[in-house]
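User: Here's a protein and a ligand (zinc ion). What would the complex look like?
Assistant: Let me lay out the input and then the predicted complex.
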Amino acid sequence: MLSLPNEFQPAILPPAAVEQPVWWFVFANGQLLVRSVDEKPELPLASGWPFAKWPPVRRLYLGTLHGRPCHAAEVTTTPPPGWAFENLRSLWAQLDEALLGVAGHALQLIEWDRNHQFCGQCGTPTERRAEERARHCPACQLTAYPRLSPVVMVRVTHEDRILLARAPRFASGVYSVLAGFVEAGETLEQTIHREVAEEVGIKVSNLRYFASQSWPFPHSLMMAFTADYAGGQLQVDGREILDARWFASDEMPGLPSPMSMAWRLIQDYLTNHH
Ligand SMILES: [Zn+2]
């Protein structure tokens, strides 16, 4: 999972004196610095910045995981010998799940911090706040907080079939549940009704909350629902959705990544309909 582990305690300012080694979540171009030890990826663990000849361009304190301080940093150059940058998706099921969750958090904060160095209203350089996770403009007082983009996802079923659809960006043969970004002013329920109508031309009812998950590519919050088919003929928009079909549990197509919320929604259906 890419969501923050419950054992993580966020904080803005680091503890004054640190004698124990701390975790370093080091990024370049959105990828995490790891080295392979016994074929398992490992993060830098050191009480201070571990690469003296390789200064970070950005540093952020994150908080503690199991009481151990966690720092995020951004670098721009190639890694020291023995270290490599890896995509978070490729580290899934390899890196410890709690560390992966903190890495997703760190990635979003590093990107947000870099993208908000100047005030969006007046262009003055912004300053980090000590009391909250925010960047503040000293000239016009505008405050920028880390951004989240809410996305709803819905599993529509009808009798003993599940609706799955193909978007142009999917790998060949892969179908998934419908999803869409929440528009300004919409409720989650309105987004679901609008997206389902726009993308596949049907109506749904009985919306029920399923679960949520952080998806830090780059800053989504996935909120999953289930729904029942309530009328209309499947008709894809041909742009966001290329094909949509009702699948029985014994004739499933290729499915999205097991690290995704979509996979959990589909797997839950299969567990209860075999
Ligand atoms: Zn300003």
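Summary: The helical segments are 88-91, 97-115, 188-200, 261-272.
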